[in-house]
Amino acid sequence: MLADALYADGPVRVGLAGAGPWARAMHARMLAAGPETRLTAVWARRPEAAAETAAPYGAAVAASFDELLERSEAIAFAVPPAVQAELAVRAARAGKALLLEKPLAAGLDEARALADTVAESGVVSQLVLTKRYHPVTRDFLRRAASVRVTGARSCYLHGAFLGGEFATSWRLEQGALYDLGPHLLDLLDASVGPIASVRAAGDSRRWIELTCEHENGAVSQASLSGSVRLARARTRVELYGEDGEVVYDTAELDHEECWPVLRREFAAAVRTGRPTPLDAARGLRLQELIARAAA
Predict the structure, then answer these.
(1) What SUPFAM superfamilies does the database record attribute to this sequence (predicted)?
(2) Spans of the chain, pLDDT less than 50
(3) Alpha carbon separation from 34 to 8, 153, 227, 261, 263 (Å, rounded)
(4) CATH, domain range 135-252
(5) What is the pTM for the complete model shown?
(6) Each residue of 95-115: pLDDT tens digit?
């Protein structure tokens, strides 16, 4: 009955900004799958790429970002961080709900401007922190809440920066701290406790180590790299304390289970006007931690 009431006006009409590999592999496919959302249109700076992304789902190709806004009640972003920061501000001011990628922006000032605009406009925002929508991740965070953590070790490693369609210019320039860091910092901040300080060693484009001190006195370590040859991406968080250990490992995690949860929760947030905790303000928090590490 609640679902019927939420979608009495039909699925949420979502426009997609971007037509790169992530837009094709995830955003377009997820939003078009419904039933809570409908992919209405795609806009990209290369019209031919937008047409290729839209065609399998019968979505329109918007000739401009303004046209995308007119066709949609929510906008999903699959563009580089610097582009997202600019366009998402325009969308928020137009009253559109936002499905945002991480990091929010290329820099802290732009991320703060976006988060402030979202708050001032009163629009719903939500972050695509993929792993957060998987039942295994949520079970890990529930278990973590029941233990007193003394220290933690974690890693997020893959070889996507070595070549292929995800070795995009912004990822190669800014490296793992900006691409993978939001995921791992979010998990450590949520499972160990709020991070009070973070410092880094290494090269974000090759291998970078983060040391975090948490408000509760715990210390955690995070290893990040997109430039190591592995058979598959590796994400692991190990929590240690007087109550024993709690381990989170994505080796057997099927990411296809994330998309229906993400879509359903975003659509519900749009219809109710109540965002989840994974909103632009959370994105700003993660960007602040990245900025501290980069400094």
Answers:
(1) Glyceraldehyde-3-phosphate dehydrogenase-like, C-terminal domain, NAD(P)-binding Rossmann-fold domains
(2) none
(3) 14, 38, 35, 11, 8
(4) 3.30.360.10
(5) 0.95
(6) 999 999 999 999 999 999 999
